## 1
Amino acid sequence: MKVQLTVNGEARADDVEPRLLLVHYLREVLGLRAANVGCDTTSCGACTVLLGGRSVKSCTVLAVQADGAQVTTAEGLATGGELHPVQAAFRQEHGLQCGFCTPGMVMAATGLLSENPHPTEAEVREGLEGNFCRCTGYHNIVRAVLAAAGQLDGEGALEQEVAQ
Amino acid sequence: MIPAPFDYVRATSAGHALELLTEHGDEAKLLAGGHSLLPMMKLRLAVPSVLIDIGSLDELAGIAVDGDDLVIGATTRHADVAASDLVRAEAPLLAWSAAQVGDPQIRHRGTIGGSLAHSDPAADLPMALTALGGSMELAGPNGPRTVAADDFSAGYFETAMEEDELLTAVRIPRRPGEPWGYQKFTRRANDWAIVGVATVAGRVALANMGARPLRATAVEEALAGGASVSDAAALAAEGTEPGEDIHADREYRQHLARVLTRRALEGRTG
C-alpha cells in the first residue's frame, strides 16, 4: 500500500505492508533510528514522535495511518547545525543517563512545550507521564524541560524550590 | 510485536464504512485511533483480516451543542474532548474523564467512540457516560438507532452494537454548574482503574466492579431518600461481584468502592 507523508520536512512515498508500524517504517525503511522500540506496548514512550505536531507513540500507529501527515523525529529537531532548545537543555541539564529513553523524552517534551510553553514543574511531570526512564533519571529530565521553557534561574535551581 | 497480516481500507465516508462492514462481516474491524485495537492485534489477541479506517473522517469528529445535549463525534480524540471549552462548561465530568485516559500521547490518538466500543469495564469513558446518563448514536444497514449508556455495554469487551453497526456519536445531557465527582484509584500513572467512581446529578457509576460499568443504585436511592453522603456511600458495593486479579481481591475492591464513592460524592477528583 502506498503512503505519502512528510518526515522531518522531506516528502516521502513508499509502498508498505498495511501492518507496518510507524516506528518500523521510520527506523527500517527510512533509516531514522532515534525513535526506539522499548516496551512495544504503548507504555514506555521511547518511540514518541510528533504526528501532525502532536506527540504519539509510533509503536501504536500504522505507517498507513500517517498517510498525508507531517512526522517529526528527534533527527528533525536541529536546524542549521544548532541543537533545538529542548535538545540543548537536555545536554545542559544532563537530562539523561543511559540515553535510551532520551529521544522519546525530547519529543514528548517538545510536544508538551508546543501545547503549554510555560509549564509548572508539576505540569512537566504530568506531561511526561507517558515516558519511562528506567535509569529513574527523572529529576534532571524535568529540569531540562523547565530550562527549555526558560523556567530556571541563573543558579540552575528550580524556581519552585527557590520560592520555598 | 507485529500484527498478523490484514487488508487495509480507508473509508471515504460513514456510509462507505457501513458498506465495507456489511461486505466483510465479522472478519473486519473498524480502526479509528487504534489505541485499543492495535495493541490487541500486536499481541494477536485480535486477528481481523480487514481494517476499515474511519480515523480521518471529518463527519465523525467534532463537538457541538444540540438543544439540551452535547453531541460528540465518535472519532473525536480524548485530548480534544479534554481541552474543549464547550465540554468543560457543559459536561466537566466528561472533560475530566477524557483527561484521565492513559497519557498525553495516548490521548492524542485515542477516540471517545473507540474507547466506548472497546467496552473495557475498567476504562474511564464507559464509566463517565454511565454517570452522565449519555447515549450512543449508531448507524447500521437498517438505519440509525440510539442506545442508552446504561444498556450499551454487554460485558467484558462486548457492546449492544451489531457487527455491521458503526458508533457515530455520543450524546450527553448538558449540565453546566452541576456538582460532580470523579475518583480513579490506580497503582501507577497511566494504569486502568483498580476501581473508579464517577457521580453527577444523583447518578453514581462504578468502573471495574463487574463486567460492565455499573450504576450504584443503592447509593442513588439512598441519596434520593435524603441519606447523608457517608451513609449512602457505605452502600456502594451492594450487589457487586467484582473480579479478582493481581491488584485486588473482591473484598478490597468493595472497600475501595465505598471509600471512593464517598470521596466522589464530596465532589473530589483524584
## 2
Amino acid sequence: MRVSLNWLQDYIELPTTNVEELTRALDMLGHAVEDVEHYRADWTKVIIGRVERIEPHPNADAVRVTHVDLGDGELQQIICGAWNFDEGAVVPVALPGAVLPGGFEIGTRAIRGVESHGMICSERELGLGELHEGIMVLSDDSPLGAPFESILALPDVVFDLEITSNRPDAMSMIGIARELAAWYDLEVTLPDWSLATVPGTPELHVTIAAPDGCNRFVAREIRDVEIAESPLWLRERLRKAGVRAISNVVDVTNYVMLELGHPLHAFDADRIAGEQLNVRWAADGEQIVTLDDVERTLVTTDLVIEDADGPTSLAAVMGGARSEVADDTTRVIMEAASWNPATVMYTSRRHDLRSEASARFERGVDPNLAPHADDRACRVLQDIAGVTILDAAIDVVANEVTPVTIAMRLSDVTRLLGDDFTVGRCATLLRRLALEVTVDGDQLDVVVPTYRPDLTRPADLVEEIARLADFDTFGETVPTGPAGGLLPEQWRTRRVRDLLRGLGLYQTVNLPFVSPEELAAFGQLDDTGAVTDVVTVRNPLREDQAKLCQSLLPGLLRKLRENRNRGADWVGLYETGRVFFAQPWTDDPRVPEQPMRLAVAVTGPYGTNRLGASPPEADATTALGLVSALADAMDIPVERVPATPPGYHPTRTAALVVDGRVVGHAGELHPDVVEQFELTGRVAVVELDLDPLVGTTPPRQMDPVSTYPHVDFDLSFEVAQEASAAQLLTATMGASELVEQARVFDDYRDADRGLRAVALRYRLRATDRTLEAEDIAGERTRMIEQAAALGATLRGSE
Amino acid sequence: METTTSLTGPMDLTEHLNAVRDAALRQIEDAADSDALAAVEAAVVGRDSEVAAARRGLGQMPAEERRDAGRLINEVAQEIQAALEARSEVLAAAAQSARIQAEAIDVTLDYQAVPVGNLHLIQQVIDEVSDIFVGLGYHVAEGPEAELAWYNFDALNTPADHPSRLGMDTMYVDYGNPEDEMNLRSHTSPIQARYMEQHEPPVYIVAPGRAYRNDTIDASHLPVFHQIEGLAVDTNITFSDLKGTLAEFARQFFGPETKVRMRPHFFPFTEPSAELDVSCFNCDGPGSTCRVCKGVGWLEMLGCGMVDPNVLTAVGYDPDELTGFAFGMGVERLAMVRHGIDSIRHFIDNDVRFLEQFRG
C-alpha cells in the first residue's frame, strides 16, 4: 500500500511530517515501511500560462506559433509541435533558462526563422508520466503565472507499506489515517460522500443467486457521462499510489478504492444485456472473455456476474470485455460489491489475476462500506465530470454483517502484557481505535466496527492494546523453567558428525526430490523389480523431481559429480536427512515412514596426503573402513555380510547388521550407476539408518586392565576364496579367554593356485598371572581347532 | 717392552708415568669421534698400554717401593679414565648434535596433509542456536517432514481457506487416507503442536528442521530450507518474557551489544504477533552505508508472538491456565546475515570450496 503524505493529510492533522518519526509510528503500528519515496519538482522555471492565440508557422507545417499569457498580461511567443490544444488552453511553460528532468536546458532559439521563448511541456518532458502525444492541458482555473509545481502537491513523500493479510481496512488512505489517529490520539475526517441526485431509478435488476459468494451488491446509475481524462490532481494521486490513469470513470473507481479500501467496478449500462445482472457460481468449463481479451475457462468455485447474454464479469477479479466502459460510454452502472474472501483468493490465483482489488477482497472488505464507497465514487465523478446521478440506489444484501461485542476481562490483558495495564488504560487505548468500550468492574465490553473483521476475541484486543502501548515500552525478562538439555541420541548424533569431520568428510544439504531414474537406482524394489512405496509430490516444482527420495545417495552423487566437474581431485561428502516410504511410520502411523539416514560417498584419492605420494583411490574398502570407524566411535557392534542391494557393486558390498537387523549398506557403487550419475572410477558409498548408530546402550562397566606381561603370536590359515575373515577372527578369539586383542594383518590371494591365506595376530594376556609357555600352547591349539571347524587349515601344518 | 725394565727408581717412575699420562691425554683430546676414541682407549688403558706395563712391573719392585708405585700408577690410570669418559660424552653430544642438524625438516611444509572435513554451515547454526536455548532451559524436539495438514495448519489456527494452504505455496503429497490431507511441512511449527500433544506442560522447546515451500530457486528462495521453531508454554509466560528471551538469544548469537525491537505483525498462530529486528552488528545504526542492513540499522530476523489460545485448545491445553510464546527463525537467513553470504543457493550447491570456509 503506497501512502502519499499530502493525500493523507486530507483526513488527519498530523502532529509531524518528519519522515523518520512517521516511519517509526507506522512500523510500530504493524504496517512495516518497506520504502520511502520522495517526490519533488524535478525542474526549474516551469510556470502556468494560457495560450491566447495560435498562428501557423510561416516556414513549417508540423509546428504552430503560440502566444502565451504568463500571468503578466504580456504575450510570449512559443513554437509548439503539439496539436492537442486550442486557443484558451492552460498549459505548463518552461521559460528560457528552465531546466527540465534529465538536465535538459531550455533557451530562446529560432525555429525556421521564428523565435521561440521557451517550451510548452508534455507529461513525459516533466517526468510526470509516459504521455508524449501532446502537451499537458491544465484545468482552466489554474493560476496563471504561478509555478507549475504549486498545483501538483509537491513536494510529497510516499510510504510504501506492507499491510498484513488480516487488515483489509488498512489497505486504504482512511485506514492508515485511522491507525495514525489512534497512535497520536487524533480525529479522522471522513471524505464527503453526499450527492446531488435527480429523481430516477436505475434501469437494472440485480439478483444474487450465490449468497455464499457475495455478501452485498450496491449500484448506482450515472448519466450524462463523458469519458475524458481525469484532472491533474487525481492523476497525480493515482501516479503516486502506483496506479495508471486511464479515464475519468475508471480512475474514480481506483481513486475511491485507494481512499476507502472498497474496490468498485464501472459497467457501461448500455452494454448490459437485458437490464439485469445476476451473481452466480460458474458452470464447470464455462468460458468468459475478460477485460484483457483473454478467454478464460471457469470452474464451479469461480463466481460470475451475468446479464441476459451470459457471464459479463469474473466477479471481484476482472470485468468482462463485453460490458467495459469505452470511449463512447454515456451511462454507467457504478458497482460496489463485497465478495467472499476465499473465493476471490482461489479465483485470482488460479487465473493469475491478482490485482489491487483482489488484494483487498481477499482480506475481507466490509460489506457495510459498499454504499459509502459507491456514493463517494459518484460524488468524485460528479465533482470532476459533472455527471447526473439517479437518486434511487440498488442495494442487494445477501448476508448482513453487524458489529460484534467482545467481553474481555482485565486478566486477559495482564496475564500476557503484565500488571501495568489497568481497566482505564485498556479502555483509553481501545477507544483511540474508535472501538466502543463499556467498563463494568474488571470487565470491558467492546463493540468492534465491521471494518475490523480481525477483532473477534479478547486475544485480538490484547494485541491492539499492546500495539498502541508501543512494543518498545515492554521490558525484557526471561522465564525460569525446568532444566533443558540434549537427549543422548541428539548429542550422539553430533558425535557422528564430528567423527565424519575428523575423517575429512564434508556435510551437505540436499533437496529430497528425485527423478524416477534416480529413485530406481537405489529404490526399494518389489518382487518384479519395480520401485515400491514411493511418496509422490502432488504439485512438484518440476515434473521430473516429483518423487521423494528413498535414499540420500542420488543427492550426494549429484554433488560428487558437480564438485568433480569443478576440478576437485577427490570428493568426500555426507548427509544426514530423512528418506520417505509410503508405509505407516512406527513413530506415527498416520504419516509415511521417514527415518533419518546417514549416507557417505567418497571418490578419488582419499586419506592422508603424504608429500610426493597420493593416498589410494577410494573404493569399497574405504567404505568398509568408514563403517568400522563409525561402529568403534559409537560403540555399536556392526556386523557385515555380503549383499547385493540395488545400485551397489554386487561383489564388493556389505549389508550392515545391528542386533540382527539390516540397517544399511557399505561398499562401492555399481559400475552402471557410476555411469548413470556421470561419474568415473570407483565410488565408495555407505548408507545406513541413523537411529541404530546413535541409539543409547546401558552405561559401560569397566573391563579390568591387566598389569601382567603379554604374549603375541601369529597364525596363518588357508581358507576358501569366499570365506569371511571376520568370522575366522571371531571364532578363534572366542576359543580363548586370554585374547586381549586380535586382528587380521594379511589377506594373501594367489588366483593361479586358487589359494587364499589369512594371517592373524593375537595378543594374549591374563589378568591374574604371567602367562607360561604351556598356557600359550593350549590356547593356540584351541584356536586352530575353531578355525578348522570353519574349514580353515593352519598353513605349513600339513 | 724394553723401557719398562729400565725403570728402577721412584723418581724415574713418576716421570715416566707423567709422560705416559700427558701422551694419553693428548691422544684422547685428539680423538675425533667415538671410533677413534675406542682405539685410543685400547692404546692408553688396554692390555698393551704403558699403564698396564707399569702395573705388570710392580711385581719386580722391592716391597718397600711397591706401595707408592702402585698408588702412582692408579692415580694416572684414573686420570686417563676420567679423560676418556669426559671425551666420550663430548663426542656423543657432538654426534647427537650433528645427527639432529642432519635431520632438520621444513616445519612450514605439510609433509602429511591430514584431511579435515566440515559440518555444513546450516548444521553449525542449528547446533549453535539449539545450544543457546538449551542453556536457557529448552529441549530440542523433532518431527516428521511429510506431515498431516492438521498439524501444519489446522492445529495452528490456520483455516482451510488460508492462502498459505494453496498449492502454489505448499507442497502436498499423496499418502494414506485422502481425507487426511498431507503436505511437506511448510514450517517447523507443526512440531509445536505434536510436542504439546505428547507432553504435559510446562514446555520449553526449540525444533530445528527442514521446511518446504513451492518456491522456484533464486538468490533468496529455496523450495527446501531450514527453520528453528521455539515454544515456551507455562503458567505465567508474558510478552516481556518473549522479548527478553529473544534479546538474550540475539546477544549470544550476534554479540553482547545487540539490541532487539519488536514490531506488530500477523501470524495465524500467535496473538499478539511480532517481527523481531536486531540491531545491525556491522554498523553504528541508521543512516550508515552499511552493506548488511542497507543503512536501516535494523535487521529483520524472525517472527514471533504469544501463542494463540486456539492453538493451546487444539492440543488439549487449557488457555485459561497457560500462556506461552512461540518464534520461528530461518536458519539460512541467520547464516547469510552473519556470514555475508550473497545467495541462498550456496547452501544447496555444496561446492567444497564453499563448505570448507566455515570452520572453527
## 3
Amino acid sequence: MRPLTRAVTIAAAALACAGCSLHNAQNALDASGPQSARIAGLWWLMLPIAAVVWVIVIAVMLWGAGRKRSVREVMETRGGTEVVANDEARSRRMTRIVAAGAIVTAVILFLMLIADFRVGQALTMAPSTKVVPIKVVGHQFWWEVQYPDSVPNKTVITANEIHIPIGTPVVMELSSPDVIHSFWVPSLTGKKDLLPGYTRSLWFRADTAGVYRGQCAEFCGLEHAKMGVLVIAQKQQDFDAWRAAQLDSATTPSDSLAQHGKAVFLGTTCVMCHAISGTSAGATTGPNLTHLASRSTIAAGTLQNTDANLYAWISDPQRIKPGVLMPATKLDPRDMQALVAYLRHLK
Amino acid sequence: MTAPPLVIGETVPVDVGAEREQMERVWGSKRGLWGWITTTNHKEIGKRYITTAFIFFLLGGIEAAMMRAQLSRPENSLIGPDKYNQIFTMHGTTMMFLFAVPIMEALGLYFVPLMVGTRNVAFPRLNAFGYWLFLIGGSFLYVQFFLNTGPDVGWFAYVPLSGPAFGPGKRADTWAQTITFTEIVAIVGAIELIVTVFKQRAVGMSLNRIPIFVWAMLVTAFMIMFAMPAVATASMYLALDRLVGTHFFNPAEGGDVLLWQHMFWFFGHPEVYIIFLPATGLVSTMLPAFTRRPVFGYPAMVLALISVAFMAFGLWVHHMFATGIPQLAASFFTATSTMIAIPTGVQIFCWLATIWSGRPRFATPMLFIMGFIFLFVIGGVTGVMIASVPFDLQVHDTFFIVAHFHYVLVGGAVFPLFGAFYYWFPKVTGRMLSERIGKWNFWLFFIGMNMTFFPMHWLGFYGMPRRVYTYLASTGWGPLNLLSSIGALVIASSVITFLVNVVVSLRGGAVAGDNPWDADTLEWATTSPPPPYNFLHLPVVQGRSALWDEGDERQVTVGTSTERREVLLTTPLDAQPDSRESHPHDSVWPLAMALAIGVLFITAIFTPLALPIGGALALIAFAGWAWPTSQDVESEKSDEKISLEGA
C-alpha cells in the first residue's frame, strides 16, 4: 500500500502548488468584471464539492481494499474456487448504502444545477442601461474591430486592440467572413464563437482599468496560435479621448524620411490590403493602419509595436507567423526604414 | 449424414482425444499464408485486431510525445504550425478512430464468443472483412500522413475550415475517407456482436446471467448502430462539398456550418461512451477475480449501462455551448450532462462495495482497476463542472478540457484496458505477463499520467487554448507545460515497460494453465490459448458466475456435430436451445471485398470514376463471397430446429 500513499502525497502537492495562482492578464480566475467573477465563483463553489466527493470515493476504495477482514467474513468453496461466502444481511446493508450514495449524488448534482442556472441567467440577461456597441469580425488570423456610430463617418475602425470604458457594459456583435473563430478574454468573460453565416452577440463589463489579453479559442488554421487580442479597459474620459483621436485622418508627416515612407507605402503592395484614412489607401483585406502607432502590439498581439519588430514583420511575416496571409515585402533597407518611420508616425 | 442427438446437461465425457482431433480438422484454418489470409476464426482475427489497434496506439502516442516536445517551452521551433496541425489531428483521429473504438470492439470480438460459450462470432466472414477494411483504412491515413497529405483540420474537422474554400489539397479528404472506413468497420463489428450475444449464448445463460463485459459490448454495439450513421452521413456531406461542389456547409449558398457540428457531436459524444462503457465492462468482469466475489449489484450495473447509453445521445450540444445556443435549449443539455453522473456514480459505488466486501489481491490488473477509479473520478467531477454552460464558456477549447477528457479516456478507458491486457494475456497466449514488470508499468503510467494532465487544468484557467503549436513566453505557461512534457516522457517509459514485458513474457513467461486467476467467466473454462473451436463441449450455464456456480461437476452439451462447423443457436431471452446451424467456412473473399471497397474509397478522393470501378470490383467480390460451395450446401443439409423438450 505504500506506493499508493506516495502517489496521494504527490497529487496533494501538485494541487497545493497549482493553487498558487499565476498573476496574469489572461486568467479566468483573476476576474476583472462581473461576468468572469461569477464564473470564477462557480468554480470556487464546485471545486470543494468535487474535492470532497473525490476524497470520499478514494478513501472508501483504499480503506475497503486495505481494511483487516473480520473473522465473520468467511470464505467458502464454490466450483472449486475459494470465494467470499454470501452474506445476505451485509448485501442488504450495502444495497442501502449504494442507494443512499446515488440519492446524495443526485441531490448534490441538483443543487449544483441550480447554482449553475442562476449564474447562466445572470450572464445572459441583457443589460438595460446604456451600452457601448462594438463589432468584432474574426479573420484568419486577426481581429477587425469597429465602433459603429449613428453618423457613418464617426465609425471607428481598428484591429486587434479593443478599447472599452470601465463600468459600462459592452455589447459585441461577432461575425466571421472566413472560418470559425472564438472570442475569448478570460479575465473578462467566457468565450463566444464567431460563425460564418451567423451573427452572435456577447456582452460583458470590465470593472478595473487594465490591459487584458485573450486569443482565438477555436482552431482556425495555421496561425490559430498567434491570433491574440488585447482589451484595454480605461476610465470613461480616457476612452472618449481615445475614440475621438481614432476619428482623425492620418496626418502627413513633416520629416522627410517618413514622407518618403508614405510614398513607399502608397507605391508598393501594401495598399492592396491595408487602409490609411486621409490617403488613397483604402483596402479592407488587412487591418486598418490609420492609427497603427497608437497600438501597443502588432501581428495580432504577437509582437511589441517597436521599430525593429515592424521592420522584421514587414520584411518577412512568414518567419514570425508562418501561414499568415501577409506576404513578405522586398524593399531596400532605406525604403524599409522610411516605411517603418511612416508607420510609427501614424499615432 | 444424420446428426447425433443433442444432450444438454451431461458431465464431461472422459475419452475425448479422437473427438478433439476431428474438431481441430473441422474448425482449424489451413496452414501457411493462405490459411492466414482466409481465416474467419474470431480469435485469429481478434488478435490481429488488438495488435493492429495497439500499433495505432503507439503511433498516436508518438504523436502525443512530439506535441509535448514542441510545447515544452514557449516559442519552440521544433515543429512548425503546418506539421503540428497535422500531428494533433493525427493524434486525435488515431486515438479515437483507430485505437480506442477498434480495440474495444476487438476485445469484444475475441472474448464475447468465449464468454458466452460459443464456437465463433456470428457472421465470421463479415468479421474478417471488418478487420481487413480497418487495416486498409488505417494504413491509408498513415501513408497519406507520411506523404505530407495528413489531415490538418482537427479530429472534429469543423467546416468551413475543412471545406473546399479553406482546406485546399487532399488533406481533409483523407480525413473524411478515413472516417468512412472506420464507421463501416465499427458498424459491422457491432452487428456481429449483437447477433452473437442474442443468438449464440450457451444453454442456460439467460439475459440475467450474461457477464457484464458482454452486456457492455451489447449496449455499446447498439450505440454504434445509432451514432455512427450520423458521422458517416456528415463525412459524406463533407466529401460531396469538397469533391463535387455541393453546398451543405457553405453559408453563402444557404448551407450551415453548425449543421456539421450537430451531426458530428451527435456521434461524437456517444463515441466517448462507446469507448468508456466497454472499459467499465472490463472492470466489472475482472473485479470478481481479484476480490473473490461476484461483482456487487449486477442489475444496477446493467441498468446503469443501459441508461448511460440512452443519455449519451442527449448531451451532444454541450460541445457547442460557445456557438451561442439559446440559454434555455442549452439548459436541457446541461441537465442531461449532469444526470449521466448518476448511473456512472452507481457503477462506481458498486465497484467500491465489491472491493469493500471482497478479499482483494493486488495483482497488476487490480492496480489498474484502482488506478482507474482514482483517475476516472477526477475526470468525472470535472465533467460535471463543464456541463455548466457558464463554466464551460471559460474552459471550453482550453487545456482544462484536454485535462478533463484525458482523465476520462486515459484514466477511464486506457487504464482498464491495460489491466485487461494483464488479465487476458495468459488466455490469449498461454503465458502470464510478469507481475514485477507489471508493477513498474502501472506506477510509471499512474505517475506520468498525473504529471502530464493535472497541470493542464491550470493552463486552461490561465487562458491556454487547445490546438496551439506554440505560445508566447509572456503568457507564463512555460513551467506547467514543461512539467506536463516531462510527464509525457514518464508515460512513454511506462508503455515501453509494457512492450518489454510482452516480449519477455512471450518467450519465457510462466505457463498460465486454463484459469490462472480462478476467475468465474466461461473463457477460463477452456485451454489457454483456446482451440479453434473454443470448447470441445459447449458449456451449460447454471448461474451468473458461470465457473463458480457450476456445482461439483461441470455440465456441458454433447452431441453437437464434429463433422461440420456447427453452432448451437439459443433463444434470445432464456438461452434455451433453438437450432443447430452450419457455420461458414474460411474464405478469401472478405479480403477481396475489403480491397474493392478500399479501392473505391481511396480513389474516390481523386476521381468520380471511383464509383463505377470500385462498385464493379465490390460486386465481383460480393458474388464470390455469396457463391455457395458444395461444402456449404452439404453442410447446410444438417441444419435443424431443436424441439424444446430436450432442454
